[in-house]
Amino acid sequence: MFFDLRACAPNLDYWYCVALGTELTAGRPLAASVWGQSVVLFRDPQGQVQALEDRCPHRQVRLSAGQVIDGQLECAYHGWRFDSRGQCVQIPYLEKGQKIPPCQIRNYPVREQDGFIWLYPGDLAVLAQTGREPLALPEWEHLNYIGSCAPFSCPGHFSFLIENLMDMHHGHLHDQHQAWAGARLEKIAGADEEVTAYYQAQSYYKIDKIWSISQLFFPALRRLHPDPLTVSYAYPHWRATLGADFKIYCLFCPVSPTETKAYLVHFTSLEAFPKLHQSPLPIRRFLKTKLSGTARPLLKNLIRQDVAMIAQEQEAFLTDPQRRSYEVNPAIAQTQKLIRRLAPERRVAQS
Ligand code: FES
Ligand SMILES: [Fe+2]
After folding, report:
1. Residues near ligand 1 with C-beta < 6 Å?
2. Could you tell me if 124 and 144 lie in one domain?
3. 339 Cα to the center of ligand 2, angstroms
4. DSSP string, 60-120
5. Model confidence at 216, in pLDDT bands (50, 70, 90)?
6. Would you give the distance in Å from CA 173 to the centre of its chain?
7. Total count of domains within the chain
């Protein structure tokens, strides 16, 4: 049945991507939301990210509307202040003899890693027991990879987005922005928390000369050639490789049953240029910084096309949730199975 899949909650005992590190500046709190949980992020005086429930215990307003002072979060309304543990530490108009009420708010494990801010919204006992880590993006800092990132929000349940990413037959949609064509599914491998689909495809890009990167801008320079295309649902995120030239990630943040935020991150590999690797480090760093973001326009076009389809899928589902969809790609059945298996309960969050 497709009915319960589109209402499945994500398993919150994993790390979710809530922001780019650069989105969170000193002194200014930032609001985020994971499956109905509102969170406020801020930096302490050491620059470390902290995360608290985005709800002042006084009058329940959003703390993210406040400001950060001396590493404490100050509510915009009456100026109550909270430390990084969520403890109220100051009420500016407290009378002599009055005590601060015991009104601690929830604090969340949060991590800044590989350019992104990761939040763990789940059960702390499960975290201690599993030792789960945020998804690693080793290419983010690596000098042999040029990164581009496109954040986006799509008006659909996260299952629609992951199905889009696991089904490589939708190259049809992407037309002149296509990175691959003629995908043929060869094999599917599954593990407890992962599904990997191996496709053989025709890639439009080949990064064998340093100027090949210009293929990202000029479609006329692209030549089709066979390349393996491997996509994985590394629950609750996605990663892919296209030949040796590209690595792509989609970092998920399911906001509600009908909204999913995500970060599409694309890396172009410079591994094929050993001479370049012998260049002085400042030159390699300069090149990485200068070229980063080059694939962003391409990503934005792909996202625009994908999101338009996902919005229609969600709309059609809400209009008639019982209507059956037909599927021929076995990678999608495996993906749906994983979502259902890891869902805490088939429950809908408050949207
Ligand atoms: S509502 Fe936050 S201090 Fe009053
Ligand atoms: Fe797509």
Report:
1. 56, 58-59, 61, 75, 77-78, 80
2. no
3. 20
4. ---GGGSEEETTEEE-TTT--EE-TTS-EEE-TTPPTT----S----B--EEEETTEEEE-
5. low
6. 22
7. 2
Whether 196 and 319 map to the same domain: the answer is: yes
The Å distance, Cα 76 to ligand 1 centre, comes to: 7
Q: Give the pLDDT confidence of 38-78 residue by residue, as tens digits.
A: 999 999 999 999 999 999 999 999 999 999 999 999 999 99
Same domain, 37 and 180: no
Answer yes or no: do 230 and 319 share one domain: yes
Task: Give how far the C-alpha of residue 268 lies from the chain's centroid of Cα atoms, to the nearest Å.
Answer: 19
Q: Which domain holds residue 322?
A: 138-342
Q: Using the structure block, give the residue that is written with the tokens 């995500």.
A: 262
CA of 187 from ligand 2 middle (Å) equals 20
Distance 81 CA to ligand 1 centre (A): 9
* Rounded average pLDDT over 143-150: 94
Rounded CA gap, 248 and 299, in Å? 10
Among 130, 165, 183, which residue terminates a domain? 130
In a domain, 154, yes or no: yes
Based on the domain organization, do 279 and 161 belong to the same domain? yes
Pairwise CA distance, residues 200 & 178, whole Å:
15
Residue of the nearest CA to atom 3 in ligand 1?
Answer: 78
Determine if the peptide bond prior to 228 is cis (ω within 30°): no
- CA-to-CA distance for 165 and 160, rounded, in angstroms? 9
Question: pTM for this structure?
Answer: 0.92
**What b/e sequence results for 106-128 when a residue is b if at least 16 CB atoms lie within 10 Å of its CB, and e otherwise?**
ebbebbbbbebbbbbbbeeeebe
Per-residue pLDDT of 297-335, as tens digits, reads 989 999 999 999 999 999 999 999 999 899 999 999 999
Residues 120 and 143 in one domain: no
Residue 52 in contact with residue 107, Cβ under 8 Å? yes
Indicate whether 87 and 145 sit together in one domain. no
Of the ligands numbered here, which is closest to the C-alpha atom of 163?
2
Which CATH number covers residue 69?
Answer: 2.102.10.10
> Which ligand 1 atom is nearest residue 91's CA?
3
Last residue in a domain, options 70, 100, 130: 130
